[in-house]
Amino acid sequence: MLSTLGLKADESQPAPVVWEAQSAAPATRPALGAQTADVASPADDLPGKGVNIFGEMGGLPRGLAKLASDGGFQQHTVAQEGYDADVSLDPTGKWLVFSSTRHSEHAHLYLQKVDGQAVTELTRGQWDDVQPAFSPDGKRIAFASTRNGRWSLYLVDADGRNVTQVTNGPGHDMHPSFAPDGNRLVYCSLGRSDQWELWTIDLTTMEKRMVGSGLFPVWSPEKGVDRIAFQRARQRGSRWFSVWTMDLVDGEPRRLTEVAVSASAAVISPAWSPDGKRLAVATVTDPAKADRASGKQDIWVFNSDGAGKQRLTDGGVNLSPVWSPGGRVFFVSDRGGKENVWSTGSQAASVLTADKKDDKSAIGSANE
């Protein structure tokens, strides 16, 4: 996946992530629907060529579970060729679905037991299937695919049957996430305006609604609270992303709040904890130069108001976090040499924080 950006691990000490103070109060900004584009305009590549972690169009980035000795890290997938990415867990925490190029130059979806070896290929074809997300009941998987010539959203049963197209607009639709009721999706769409927008769709009525601008949204699993986290560039065309949340009230966006921003890194790919009280993110240091192999990526967790930040990893490639029902954080890492799915528990954060008390990367929010 990171070959698109040229991100590589090296032997140098990772640059510290310095968190900026931010208010937990909603930001004073124009209405979401009126905001301008906040990511770089895409290159004129073919639609099937992929989207990188900064929302830029470009080339689609090109065994046995085991315990590591550091921080309780556990490897779950083993791709000898290609890469594994975009992991999602079912509500029981026993199954994971991910995209992979292990058997093809195209990314397809695979299903595997969290503690198992057998892998089932759910999709295949001369197109790319990425960014799977389990439904709250575990019966369906939403994903993005180029099978119709551009990125659109689809649903498939958890056994790989009954593929159904959900969106079919003129732009690119990606990164679906289910609402707690299982009847709605939030996703990002790149249309004629050349900006990434946040949309929701009702899977019963197929009614769509634009709720703002941003990238890679995730719906909080907390029932009774329509809350969405997403990443947004701090300036139009910039890779310096921060993480925001917003509430939907009668379908309308309210209480737009920036909860994680750093002076030294892009903060991307938010993921909610099972109770909706915490968030996991990835950070990429010096993102403007990330395609020249200078970026470092780490996984962090913190409270939903931005307080209590803890770092789970210590340099290298660590991206795309997602929580398991049991509280472990799964992510994509190259710590084994190839990009595979790994996980770690909260004890990794306390070890890193305790061992590096004077490390600026371990400081928290001003709200703590």
Brief description of this entry?
With 368 residues, the chain is mostly beta strands. The protein has 1 helix and 25 strands.
Describe this structure as you would to a colleague.
This protein has 368 residues and is mostly beta strands. It has a single domain (2-362), classed as 6 Propeller (Neuraminidase). Helix content is 2%, strand content 39%. It has one helix at 347-355, and strands at 66-67, 74-75, 84-89, 95-100, 108-113, 119-121, 129-134, 140-145, 152-157, 164-165, 172-178, 184-190, 196-202, 208-213, 215-219, 227-233, 241-249, 252-260, 265-272, 278-285, 297-303, 310-311, 318-323, 329-333, 340-344. The chain has a 5-stranded antiparallel sheet with strand order 1-2-25-24-23, with no helix packed on it. The protein has a 4-stranded antiparallel sheet with strand order 3-4-5-6, with no helix packed on it. A hairpin with a 5-residue loop joins strand 19 (265-272) and strand 20. The protein is globular and about 45 Å long.
